[in-house]
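User: Could you walk me through two proteins back to back? I'd like the raw sequence and the structure tokens for each, with a short line separating them so I can tell where one ends and the next begins.

Assistant: Of course. Protein one, sequence then structure:
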Amino acid sequence: MSRKGKTYEEMYGVEKAKELRKKLSVAQKKSYREDPNRINDRPSGKDHPMYGKHHSSETRKEISVGIKKFYKENTDYRNSGMFKKGQVPWNKGKKVPREQIETQRASLKRWYIDNPEEVESLHKKQNNGKIDFYQNLRDEGTYNEYMDKKNKKSSESMNGIKFTPDHKRALSDAHWSKKPGAYEIERRIGVANEGHVAWNKGLTKETDERLANSIASQPHSEEWNNKVSVSLQNSEIRQEYYKSPEFLKGCSNGAIAARKAKKIYPNGPETKFIKLCEEYNLPYKYVGNGDFWIKNRNPDFLNINGEKKVVEIDGVYWHLKRLQKDNPSLTREDVEIREMDHYKQYGFESIIIWEDELDNESLVLKKLGVTYD
């Protein structure tokens, strides 16, 4: 807009306005090349004259109506480069060559390495902007209202969207292993440290001055020894209490309360198995809500035909991938054997079904020992 309140198109016509805008753009870029500091001298943040100011809803509506009216009346300007309905994008079906992508990544990586101060300044500027924004909301007392609206909008945008099994699996993998190379790095560290001898191996306080003067080699006070003695006695008492029926019952009640509070019984895989039992008239009842316990474990399903059988529906993440973070070599067979051994010592046969096996009905029926023509 010019100082007269009119657009360049209204003042000079479409063609001349395009030419004028191009000249202004070239001149501005040239001035920035000659004096790069001009970009940094521009007011920003709280120093900007428009900081904290917003158009009213009436003004925004007028701007929108004005833009639509302008494009409707100036079809030549609209068709000169603006996207229109039915137009095929110039890059549809085209892909950037892999070599070009790698070159761009390498170039960007080199820039980050060669310009650490600029990178730090850029990150600091971005973070300060966010900090100032949220701090202003807190000062105005509208932070909670803003976050509630933001979360509600995010939730509504996802309403009705159903993820595919592959998408769910990808989300699960991303959740339990946010650093893809973490386990490989740990393995390499272990290999690198293999054969490493600790600096203090074989040394004693009699042969090494460092150990002789260390705090660990100094005698403890009588008060300290008494505290340690009491702590060890309490530890032994606690260990015995942890094995008592009262404690185990409390754990069971706590687990039941947690599941009821979250309303997560039965979950998705368990619901699938319930439908399978109804379809094939299988003699199993859902008890995963805490109705039946074997020692300190609550199986998901119990046989109701008098046989001492239970069925566990194991989630891949909770029963395998989560544990593999600390034990990468853990397999499904290891998990199944551990669960089976627990129930076996109390005279129960356990059948382990994994959540990703529930879509294969023939496999599930085979595990349950059921045959159908």
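----
Protein two, same layout:
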Amino acid sequence: MVLVAIVTSKADGDDGPHRARIPLYVILISILANLFYLEPETTKIMFKRHAVERRLETGHEVGQLKPKDPKKANDPELKALSRTFGMLHGFSTLMNLAALVFGCLWLSRCVGAILKDTTI
């Protein structure tokens, strides 16, 4: 859908045709980065983390981020996987938010161009 918008975009604006499409390029890059790197890596780490939780016999507590047992909670492998998972999940969320913000920016620019061309 973003590719169609880039190809069919006629927002020439005062800044030139390519500058008007910058939000669309940012959306495309953030979606592709999320699709081909962040989501697969996050999923891979999540499954590794689930395996460690099963080995430690924890992770079945609903709403709990850490096991109650300090020995299990301080397992170095679990801590490392949780940290990596949190980082990748955060970046994935940031990429989704960037796509949303730049989509709103592009949409507001299009609506502004339409309103500018119409006389009231």
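The longest helix spans residues 76-117.

Let me know if you want the two compared in more detail.
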